[in-house]
Amino acid sequence: MAALVCVSDFERYAHEHLPKSARDYYFSGASGQQTLEENTAAFRRLRLRPRVLRDVSRVSTETTLLGRRIAFPICAAPTGIQRMAHPDGEIATAKALADLSSCMTLSWWSTTSIEDVARSAPGGVRWFQLHIDSSRETTVDLIRRAEKMGYEAIVLTVDMPMMGQRYDHIRNRFVLPRSLKFENFSKETASKFSETQSQGNPRMARRLQTMIDPTLNWDSVPWLISVTRLPIVLKGILTGKDAREAVERGVSGIWVSNHGARQLDGVPATIEVLSEIVHAVDGRAEIYLDGGIRHGTDVLKALALGARAVFVGRPILFGLAYKGADGVKQVMEILREEFRTAMALSGCTSLNDISRALVAHESYYWSKL
Ligand SMILES: Cc1cc2nc3c(=O)[nH]c(=O)nc-3n(C[C@H](O)[C@H](O)[C@H](O)COP(=O)(O)O)c2cc1C
Known about the structure:
- The protein is an alpha/beta fold.
- It has a single domain (about 5-360), classed as Alpha-Beta Barrel (TIM Barrel), CATH 3.20.20.
- It has helices at about 5-15, 20-25, 35-45, 90-100, 115-120, 135-150, 165-170, 185-200, 205-210, 220-225, 240-250, 270-280, 295-305, 315-345, 360-365; strands at about 45-50, 65, 70, 75, 105, 125-130, 155, 230-235, 255, 285-290, 310, 360.
- It has an eight-stranded parallel β-sheet. The protein has a two-stranded antiparallel sheet with strand order 1-12.
- Helix 4 (about 90-100) runs parallel beside helix 14 (about 315-345).
- The longest helix is centred in the last third of the chain and has 32 residues, at about 315-345.
- The structure holds flavin mononucleotide.
- Flavin mononucleotide binds next to helix 2.
């Protein structure tokens, strides 16, 4: 087999080797998948404007996330059911990210427990992604477990008051493989879920909705802040107005995301909305971005437009499908080295050198003709 040298090589490998139902689960976007295409296409519409002759013999990619040092600004987004890609699943991801000194976000839909993930990679920077269940008590229990095990932030996913329509999941009547379990669900949530499983799709999506509280609203944010000492990040913000609402309620981070195009189809690519959000937040919270990051140059573009760090979802799953922890490490190292090279070739030696002037929309050049 030829060497895998870029994220799309790992993507091809995963596409060829995963069983159909896992492959469709990981690769799908929502509905007509317009946003899925746009997430990557929008990066290609941006052009880099490199500066030269700047002594790039030393390049540092280090930064901090909510005050915690990480070696490079590319982290793991939460993705559910990682043990379907490799038996080591979330533990493999945790080990790879800890080895590389970057941050892993563990999903609420994880097939490994909060505790096992934390114990498998001591010292790693980890965040926990949360959905608020209709029982506030079970939600608080989950937060306490994350706090106790050293997770450093709670990421509340806000773009999923109900499941997006994913045609392949419906066609395949996707259900969790029998050998796996959602390890962090409370007894109550687990029993709702097993009812769901026995019915299979298309009812599954509708029943799953009952597990996430659809009544959540802006008052839920101060409540969440009041029940934990951990910083809160809201994941799934796509407008300046919502970013402003979030900051006014005291969140520490805004995570620009369209859920990897799996929720509302027809929304913009995340990179397209980043500037609007940066202006609205005006330095009052950290801003992160995910969606369609497949190259080091994508990372550079996102940072130039104001993201503090980026997160990748599917690339982690491609790495897992290839070779567990080793595969995730390889994918992340490729992105890190591509990013470092892109920085040097643009004349940047630290993240402070990456500025808005480094990026122009393709139309800028045509308007000069
Ligand atoms: C298979 C899959 C499962 C996901 N599971 C979750 C999840 O459990 N919680 C969540 O907040 N986001 C979830 N997401 C969204 C990711 O966190 C992230 O926003 C998205 O994957 C980024 O886009 P990318 O895959 O192009 O990098 C999932 C995405 C995928 C592809």
